[in-house]
């Protein structure tokens, strides 16, 4: 497990699997608030638009139309073994852990 420190003034970091660290650390990641928690995101230019990429979906290679959730409800734990691709009917219903 390795740590990536996020940009911004939240002072938040995320945990990632060793195998993913080199690729993920090439980008500037930030904590984006969403409902009761934060998600680890980066911005990406696609043509003339800027889109938001969520780290957990990138790691899990989540297909369109599916969700990716954190098994332990901790959205800052982006280790591969903590992520699973699920249908919208199956994803975690419990509130995520808030880490500030």
Number of strands: 8
Round the Cα radius of gyration to an integer and report it: 13 Å
CATH topology: Homing Intron 3 (I-Ppo) Encoded Endonuclease, Chain A
Taking the alpha carbons of the first and last residues, their distance comes to 20 Å
Protein model, in words:
With 100 residues, the protein is mainly β. It contains two helices and eight strands, in the order E-E-H-E-E-E-H-E-E-E. The protein has one domain: Homing Intron 3 (I-Ppo) Encoded Endonuclease, Chain A (Alpha-Beta Complex). It is 13% helix and 39% strand. A three-stranded mixed beta sheet has the order 1-2-7. The protein starts with a strand and ends in a 14-residue tail after the last strand.
Please give the structural blueprint.
Blueprint: E1 2-5, E2 13-16, H1 18-24, E3 30-34, E4 37-46, E5 49-54, H2 55-60, E6 67-70, E7 77-78, E8 83-86
Parallel strand pairs: 2-7
Antiparallel strand pairs: 1-2, 3-4, 4-5, 6-8
